[in-house]
Amino acid sequence: MTGEDFGGVEETSSARSRDGAISVITTPAGLPLAVRIDDTQLRKHPQVVADDVLRLCQQSAMASAIRLRARLLESGTPSEVVESLGLPRPDDLADAELRDDDEADAPASWLRSV
User: Fold this and answer.
1) Does residue 30 have a pLDDT over 80?
2) Longest dimension (CA), the chain
3) CA distance 63 to 25
4) What CA–CA distance (Å, rounded) separates 33 from 9?
């Protein structure tokens, strides 16, 4: 996940799925500016793909907030002020990614066809 200049937006963030089949570029707030979906994803149910895109937009926003936290601390903002903002830490993003991976591996339904 990196910050970039994208079409006049001062800073953007990006995220991609583990397999690279879906990637997003977002504003710092997580609003999508660009979405790339590999053809292999078109076999999936549209809601599954939409959920993946939304999850990646949220992870991208979290990565942007982590960079903001680091910049604030580096610029000398008191840690108490930074903490009061509730900005995520790198471990928070790693935990979110692990949770998302676990949820992605879970079956969509426990029902089986008969």
Assistant:
1) yes
2) 63
3) 12
4) 9
Q: Give the bridge partners for 36, in sequence order.
A: 23
CB-CB contact of 41 with 49 (8 Å): yes
Task: Compute how many other C-beta atoms are within 10 angstroms of the C-beta atom of residue 39.
Answer: 7
pTM (2 d.p.): 0.76
**In the numeric block, which tokens belong to residue 71?**
């910049």
- Phi, psi (rounded to 5 degrees) for 11: -140, 135
Q: Please give the Cα distance from 14 to 71 (Å, whole number).
A: 18
The residue type of 103 is: E
pLDDT class for 60, splitting at 50, 70, 90?
Answer: very high
